[in-house]
User: Fold this.
Amino acid sequence: MSRQNIEWLRDNVMVDVKRAGKPWHADLTPGVENPNLYDGPIPLADVETRLFPWEPMGVDIKLAIPDGTNVPKDIAERMVENGFVIPGYKAWIRDDTFELMGIHTDGYVGHGYRQWLTEAVASILKDDLSIITAGLLDGGAKAWVQVGLPESVTVGDVEYRATLFATTSLDGSIATTYKIVITLVVCDNTRAMALGEKGASFKVKHTKNSGLRIMEARDALGIIQKSADGFGEELETLLAQKVTPKQWAKFLDTINPMPAEEYAKREDTGEVVVLNKRAITMAERKRDGLVYMYNNDDRVAPWKGTAFGALQAVNTYEHHETRTNKGTVRLERNMLRTIKGEYDSLDRSTNQILQSVLA
Assistant:
């Protein structure tokens, strides 16, 4: 179950709608203001004062013995001597609400969002860079800042921008990561994000000596433009690769094979039934969705007949059409899958399959 709800997203996700589009969770009621939506770059000061005005704090974890519990005398004496502190662990909390972010061993060091996200990014956030999105998830246990070049680049008829995700967590789910990705104007953080697997990245684990590496992280951010140029070359290659209707059909069969019907006879009535009917229905639904996108969707159809179009269909479907678990917020799921590299892996494997079909 997701801990995010629409109110949380409206309060804790900041978006430059001119660059990224208006998010689905925006309140479109006439006369209602959305203070976290900006018609242009998001001011760095707003991110720090509205999203990151607090710091993570590691505190001792103290043990409480329930009344009536029979504790041996020697153990009780040791507990009193140590102040009932559980050795070897710290609880990491927000220093404003004291909400628990995570419990870790003594070797863990929480990376403050201002230092590791906004201040690190600010070291290169000059005239040619701007903040596109920033946000908090899970009560503040995860955070990101996304920056990019203000001017788009066009390859063929595809418009894209280089962006950098700076992200970290306090719950142990991810290391502090700076990663180059590409955001396509035609589909907010869809195909181009995942094609960023060849873009440079830099990770810093939450260890005691990690503070010494923040200068390395700042230096690593300077490669953003070079990575963008590399993506343009890759994009040109994909646009130049032709995909025939026969190859598209074979590609679909490979990435979304239709299960063979499995039959069984009911003992009570003798009726023959299909055992895997649900699996067949799900496969048919996905195939129909991919075919529709490839032929009709404005985010995909303009590149029908190219390798880029085929990959764009799969990535767009995964972002916007795959079923989510009950209670899961799609935007949150997509952001988490992005910053954890899951879309990178998906697109890498999908492109490998496509290239084998085209070979």
Remarks:
- The longest strand covers residues 158-169.
- The chain has 13 helices and 13 strands.
- Residues 45 and 118 are 9 Å apart (CA to CA).
